[in-house]
Design a protein that fits this description.
The complex is a heterodimer of chains A (252) and B (773). Chain A is mainly α and 252 residues long. Chain A is built from 11 helices and no strands. With 773 residues, chain B is of the alpha+beta class. Helix content of chain B is 50%, strand content 15%. In chain B, strand 22, helix 21 and strand 23 form a beta-alpha-beta unit. The chains are: A mainly alpha (252), B alpha+beta (773). Chains A and B meet through helix 2, helix 5 and helix 6 of A and helix 2, helix 5 and helix 23 of B.
Chain lengths: 252, 773
Amino acid sequence: MIHGYELPLVFVSGLLGSAHCIGMCGAISATMNLGTSRLRSACARQLIWSAGRTFTYAFLGMLAAFAGRRLSDSAFAKSQAEVISVQAIFAVVAGLALIVQGLVSAGLFRRSVQPHSGCLTATVFGRFVRGGSGLGVFIAGIATGFLPCGLVYSFLALAAASGSLWHGPLVMAAFGLGTMPIMLLTGAGLTLASLSLRQRLMKVAAVCVVVTGLLTCGRGIAFAFPEHAQQSPQDSCPFCTPATTPAIETGS
Amino acid sequence: MDAPPASSARCLYCDLPVPGSEQQAAYCCYGCRFAHAVVREQQGEGAVQWTVIRLGLAIFFTMNLMAFTMTMWSLDVYDVSPDPLQLTLFDVFRWLSMLLAVPVLLLLGTPLMQNCVDGLRQGRFSTDALILLAVAAAFATSSVSLLAGHGPIYFEVGAMVLVMMTLGRWIEAAGRQKATQALDQLEDLLPTEAVRLSPAGPSAMEQTIACTLIREGDLLRVRAGERLPVDGILHAGHTCVDEQVFTGESVPCERRVGDRVLAGTVNIEGEIHIKATAGFREGAFGRLMQTLRSARNTQGQYQRLSERITRWFLPLVTAVAILAFCIHLASGLSVAIHTAMAVLLIACPCALGLATPLAVWTSLSTAARHQVMFRSAEAIERLAEATAVCFDKTGTLTTGSPHITQLAVFDELSETDLAVIRTLADSSSHPFSRAIVAYFDEAESTVAVCESDDTPRTVAGGGVQMRCGDQLCRLGSIEFTCCDTCQTLHETQPQLCVHCPHSAGRGTSSPRAANYPDAPDAPHVPLNVRVQLDRLRMAADTQAASIVLYSVDHRPLCGFLVSEALRPEAAESLAETEALVDHVRILTGDRAARRRFLKQQLPLTRTSIHCQLSPQQKVEHVRELQAQGHRTVMVGDGINDAPALAASDTGIAPGCGADITRDAAAVCVLSDNLAHIPWAIRHARRTRRIMKQNLLWAFSYNTAGIIAAACGLLNPALAAALMIVSSLMVISNSLRLLRDDTAHDQQNIDSRRRTASVRQQRATPPQPQKCAS
């Protein structure tokens, strides 16, 4: 189910999608540096925090993959296998979610930001993401990983589509690792990119997420039609060959 | 702080009553104990948040444990024959599972056990102990299987249950605290520190002290913009205060030396010194808080119902769990343990116990923020059932400050006349004079100030007069302006004064005319003026208004019709009330003319207005409505019409202001804004609806959940998660009451804006309103 090009693409999506992460989790990552002024320890804290986050992503990926596998192995799904494949549905849903996510971050849709103050869990959650000692920072990272995030959910759908207890976590880990570099830099207090460059990067990130979405969608569609299934799915996918090359180029 | 009347102890964290224990430190549940530990660590500067880290670590271990478990499950799920390498790997995984589960048991099980032990020591029993027992049993049987080399292991169940329970109870506690702290927010309005002046000589010593140390008689300094810490008498300085906390309207009220000032109000202008007349959290604000607190301790019928259920709940659940354990023992120890654990976990006494008190508490706090004080939970329930509303007195419908509704000019008015009227009106503080000044201001007429040697004189019971050149100008009642003697007779023969022998033109015999010997003989009041005057009288009669005349040498030139204005929100509020209940009646002791006026002013279809009623007749009206099967609400000030208020099912006293303990109405509205009355009814209904929903949910959830769990249909981890969901449903449903009814708020703001703009127009320079005190 997972192809060689997919993990790097997920990584690049994470890398470039981290513009989104800075907007959402930037404030949390900044609090990890409280109580330290040295760059070295700030970097270490950011690394620990991101490791915690990635651990959660991988765990969630495993859960999603397990659920996906379980669903596609259920008696109902097996009985309907002739008609439709659960994996294909997952792939299409994941792809659509990614496309929407990409278009949102490209600024095509305005999202209404809901205030979270009314949420009961917010008070409890706030306690976890405070950081403090190294252990506290790691736990804050784990907690941050559970924060609701459209990007994470989209990739989780991808992990569910993989249906493999190994590949699910891998997809999410690749995504988590992808978000690391920029979160690390900004978290450590460095802003290398100018505003215009960041805006351009965000656009590229959006394109990258959309491409991942298209790929996933295409794979789902290919998978849904058994007559094409004899061929390798990526050969039957109309988007794969033309789309991957530019996306990776822009990313590198 | 006022001690709650009930002697029951309160939870250290969420402030809810803890049954059983007396004055010892207690928590109502494990969640509160946990949350309080977190908060205390937070307060300790630089301290390691061990409690949070402990839970975080437990979550981390559980996640790992789940990962391994999922891998092992895949063996069962996929139904493929594993190769030997996989089998060896899985054997390692089984041991790793235990390795990861033990820390979770230690990290989260120990504090839970501590809580159970403390609870039992204080004589409180909860199912937590049984759950802990089941978790320990699950761990033990899994360990035995592991050591034996065969049999199922389910370390993840115990770990998940512990994490879910701790996290869930904590979130619950946070929700509860959120509901209860709304009241404290009101209390937090008061400052914590005050500047005390020692009265030693002119160079007074200043000393900053904690407000709790303020004693009666202390001299305190309050700077501009600060809130007053205690009630007091203004000792030095001159200021305006904002009494919004009591009146609901942000209007500056003037206060001079010797005036009473209230705790919680804001000193707007200069620095003032006050002499404390009450201690901290005593006085008006203290009474407000006490009313709220004692209301929290009351029980409505729904609460009594839920308490009756809760009393049977714990023993019942324990019995069901034991029974389920015994029955399922036939299909294996692990199944029996899991079933019993699921029963204990799914049973959520929290949802049942919180269903009504939490709704009541949130409701009380929200109402208090809207200047509506319910005296008890029962008052909310009763108001919610209201089907008829009686407004006790027209005074509640009017503003209390009269305004000019009509100006009738009988003769030509010169600029000088206008200037004289203005000057006369300016000189008096009578509400009618103020109304005339406001009328001029509203018309934006640029009336020159009258140039005269004489200064206006106020004649008690009549009006104002001054000499302008050789003319005697008067502004006041008909009797006063038209003749000299009738002002003393007007009680008996008011209609005669224009015609009477002492009236204008025949005033030579008037004793007062002797004071103005140079007054020329004015002509007799001409017929056309008399006709116009009669018309004005009739208008006054229909509108229930009063007449102010302006005369020059006893010859009326113009007349003002002064009437008490209806409150701007009256029509709207009454219409809203009409929509909410079946019957609305206005019961007033005023003359019958009032009825026509009200009918005219209030375009209401279903409101009946009854005039010239004695207090006893008002009671009869209330009784009549009750006899028809209506739950009757009486809106009245409770002083004049106490019998009617007492006869009604629920009494609402509007405009209580700082005097909350003034009367015994079940509901006090601090502000006199009428919009609060339909709001209070809607709010009470909303509260009742939410209480019912909570009870229904908690009851049906528990019944269905326990049956399903007892049949062995629920995984314990899932049961723990569902228990959290159930509590959260109840808590967040109750917390909905914290959010305001936005439609009402908008109206409220609009009406305030209207009132404010009218005030601004009427009063230049700003005339401080007389505040309710």
